[in-house]
Predict the structure of 4-HYDROXYLASE putative-RELATED.
Amino acid sequence: MNSFSFNHLSYIFACHFGYGLLNLSSLSLIIVFLFILIRFPMISTVASTEVMVSNASSSFDPEDGSNYDSANDMKAFDETKGGVKGLADSGLIKIPRFFVHPPEKPQQPPSKSSNINLQVPIINFEGFESSRRKDVVNEIRRASENWGLFQVVNHGIPENVMDDMLEGVKRFHEQPQEVKTEFYTRDADQRVKFFTGALLLTKEPAIWRDTVAFDFKDGKLDPQLFPAIMREEVGEYFRHVTKTGKALSELLSEALGLRRNYLSSIECMETESLVGHYYPACPQPELTFGTTTHSDPSFLTILLQDNKGGLQVLHQNQWVDVPPLQGALLVNIGDLMQLITNDRFRSVEHRVLAGEVGPRISLASFFFPSTANTFKPYGVIQELLSDDTPIYRATHLAEFMGQYMSTGSYISTLSHFKVSSGQDCSSTEDTDH
Ligand code: OGA
Ligand code: NI
């Protein structure tokens, strides 16, 4: 969750932990807090306003190769509350400098290319509750070990529910600006929010994307808070995707060789954050990103994408397209799942290219532990260890997310929790039920 997730993470973070970071030492608190305000502007409007004046952002300038101070431009853009769509609608032919990303370094995989010989696994869930369960479990195991993500067909969510949800996200972003700006906020207490890919106070360039986000804490969110323009769709999709999440938690448990209810018993997927992304057509897609490279810090993510394409996954050090597949859902393993499975299942880096054609709509559902478990230790599952030693020490969600955000890294923060990194190996017993 790069810039991407930085926005929705701020959201998740705020929802889960509020100001739980006050438990950290004061120096790290200040660093973490500043970072959160920088990367996650929605945490607190008041606080971010105070800090804003003293920080500068910079972006790469493709014309003269220099950096420029983008803070004021980003701030001005943010204050329009119109999002990237508002900007795109103004008919500009050159994107503002603060959206321009530096050219990739030579050691990184080639940017826009995709290896057509590699194909993201597609798993047919038909019969997964009966005759084909064993096959489905085996396919999930292979895909989670080798790819960290897979497409699922015949998962049980009716196509019209998915289509309606994507349409709902589109309608939200395409409604008159003055209506949607009511939801534009950085208030941590707001559980429904609209925000953009422009991040104040960060050195990172902005991304070409707007988002509407819903925080279903412990699976609950008052439908009266949903924007009227998509109220039915959000409720309906949420009900279905929650069921799919439960089915996946059982299948993944079995794929790990554990009893079916193992993952549900440790309550690691009880809270859901739904984020509806809108990627407007971009006049200079080669200069920016829709979503920059990141892995999801969640336990599991279920993604619904429309038919525009642009999502890529890093596999064997190559960017591989995740082609839209009618009726399919994309499932990806998150960092926390990688941690508790001792690297058996992989959280995978992915990104979204900006596109000349748009808008592209997607809807990600991130699964996190119940709010009661914010400080519960999650460590490597004891049953998976046999003679291996755990790669990671136990951590809790508050610490994990604090670390994730404090590093400023878009990439997984898992290595911080490696036992060999000099950290204590705390008991993992608490995770066993
Ligand atoms: C995300 C993400 C991909 C997409 O929100 O974490 O990776 O297709 N989104 O929007
Ligand atoms: Ni993601």
User: Anything to note?
Assistant: Residues 159 and 327 are 6 Å apart (CA to CA). Residues 1-57, 423-433 have pLDDT under 50 and may be disordered. Residues 294, 296, 301, 350 surround nickel (II) ion (ligand 2) (CB under 6 Å).
